[in-house]
Amino acid sequence: WWVPRPQLPPARVAALAAVLYRGVVVGSEAAAFIMNLLQVVRDHWVHVLVPMGFVFGYYLDRKNDEKLTAFRNKSLLYKRELKPNEEVTWK
Fold first, then answer.
1. What sign does the CA torsion over 69, 75, 78, 81 have?
2. Cα–Cα distance measured from residue 63 to residue 70, given in angstroms and rounded to the nearest whole number
3. In this predicted model, which residue has the larger pLDDT, 8 or 4?
4. Rounded Cα distance, 58 and 36, in Å
5. Distances from the Cα of 69 to the Cαs of 64, 75, 86, 89, in angstroms?
6. Other Cβ atoms within 10 Å of 91 Cβ, number
7. Residue 53 or residue 19, greater confidence
8. pLDDT at position 73, please?
9. Does the predicted TM-score (pTM) go above 0.90?
10. CA distances in angstroms from 40 to 32, 35, 54, 65, 69, listed in the order given
11. How far apart are CA 67 and CA 61, in angstroms?
């Protein structure tokens, strides 16, 4: 007697093929996402870098003001008591 063999691969091989296929799909989707992200950055870098430069400059300005304020508080020149209605010399 001859028993026909099934045309489908065994379950383990089918599961392995499905896992590998998903990995390829996910890998290609990730690559496509990265390429799209790079394209957006290439097309709109000005819209990203200019605000980032503004924020970075603002941060550096604030840090410099803090440093100068600390110096002012230690300086004998600015340590005196202010007269009535006199504004601080440096804010």
1. positive
2. 11
3. 4
4. 31
5. 9, 10, 18, 11
6. 7
7. 53
8. 60
9. no
10. 12, 9, 21, 36, 42
11. 10
Q: What percent of the chain has pLDDT over 90?
A: 14
Report whether pLDDT(26) > 70: no
The answer to whether residue 25 scores a pLDDT higher than 60 is no
Contacts of 30-39 spanning 24+ positions with Cβ under 8 A = none
For helices 11-43 and 45-74, give the axis angle rounded to 10 degrees.
70
DSSP string over the chain: --PPPPSSPPHHHHHHHHHHHHHHHHHHHHHHHHHHHHHHHHHSHHHHHHHHHHHHHHHHHHHHHHHHHHHHHH-SSS-SPPPTTPPPS--
- CA dist 50 and 82 (Å) reads 41
CA distance 34 to 42: 12
